[in-house]
Amino acid sequence: MDATTDSIPRPSASRATARPAYFVSDSTGITAETLGSALLANFPGVAFHRHTIPFVDTVGGARDVVRDIQAAAATGAVPILFATVKSAEILAELMASGAVVVDLLGGHLRELEAALGSTASEQLGQYHGVGDIERYFARMRAVEYAIEHDDGQSMRALDIADVIVIAPSRCGKTPTTMYLALQYGLLVANYPLTDDDFPSDGLPAPVAPHLDKCFGLTTTPLRLSQVRHERRPDSVYSSLAQCTLELRRAEDLYRRNRVPFLNSSTKSVEEMSAVIMQSMRLRS
User: Fold this and answer.
1) How confident is the model at residue 9, as a pLDDT?
2) Spatial distance between the Cα atoms of 48 and 33, rounded to a whole number of angstroms
3) Residue pair 20/68 in contact by the 8 Å Cβ criterion
4) How far is CA 135 from CA 158, 184, 256, in A?
5) Side-chain half-sphere of 229: how many Cα atoms within 13 Å?
6) Three-state SS annotation for the chain
7) pLDDT tens-digit series, residues 175-208
């Protein structure tokens, strides 16, 4: 799998000096972590020690979390707790923890209840449940397609791809491909650009018939060299000169063939996916 090249550097800090941040949910914790992290990203000068605690669906489980939070509070700053919990009883336990509690569901559910004239379901974990069965199976098929077509392993059925991500090795193709498949159910293939692909001005033969589906990734030579060095230290493959050459040739190829492309060096997988979907007009 391609190494992710898109993390924005955060301030380094020991756990002792970082502010504890808890993401607590009665389901998988994905929503709490995603929304909570989006809020914390607005404070780049503060370091956080993050804990995700899923499936807190009983009062006893909430009390275990509270003990954890209180132990953390005793050693430093007051923890911040982001909660996606429907049960008022469980939420009340968390509110009594002494943490700064951000209820990510409560206020919005009440607003929707008022707007829709209906009471929210008490069933837990619906957001990340199977829900729409057809949509669920579409996402699973997309993941299977992404795995089959990862790193140019298969050229079968490229005509049904929604996107073909092309880039030199280790520019972030695989994590972006998998995110688009799992999150949005898109059929995404990815193809690595190698030395064999550059004798001609056109796109590599396997993807050339699908130019309108192609999207390119690039990065900075230094970042690419660092990522490759972790895989093959002190090799030609990871040398700054080789990385500079490959990226220059890839960007020239994108421009000649009018392939939209994006620098992944300072972008998250989520940001890259959003840009790809907008650029390829894949948003519904």
Assistant:
1) 40
2) 13
3) no
4) 21, 9, 37
5) 11
6) CCCCCCCCCCCCCCCCCCEEEEEEECCCCHHHHHHHHHHHCCCCCCCEEEEEECCCCCHHHHHHHHHHHHHHHCCCCCCEEEEECCCHHHHHHHHCCCCEEEECCHHHHHHHHHHHCCCCCCCCCCCCCCCCHHHHHHHHHHHHHHHHCHHHCCCCCHHHCCEEEEEECCCCHHHHHHHHHHHHCCCEEEEEECHHHCCCCCCCCCCHHHHHHEEEEECCHHHHHHHHHHHCCCCCCCCHHHHHHHHHHHHHHHHHCCCCEEECCCCCHHHHHHHHHHHCCCCC
7) 999 999 988 899 999 999 998 888 778 999 999 9
Question: Angle of helix 173-184 relative to helix 133-148, nearest 10 degrees?
Answer: 160
- Token readout for 149 is 């077509």
Angle of CA points 251, 193, 231, to nearest 5°: 105
Burial of 198 (0-12, 13-18, 19+ CB in 10 A): middle
Measured distance CA(275)–CA(261) in Å, rounded = 9
Q: Which residues contact 246 (CB under 8 A, 6 or more apart)?
A: 168, 193, 224
Structure tokens at 229: 């060095």
Interatomic CA distance for residues 213 and 277, integer angstroms: 11
What are the tokens at 208? 């050339």
Per-residue pLDDT reduced to its tens digit, 49-95:
999 999 999 999 999 999 999 999 998 889 999 999 988 899 999 99
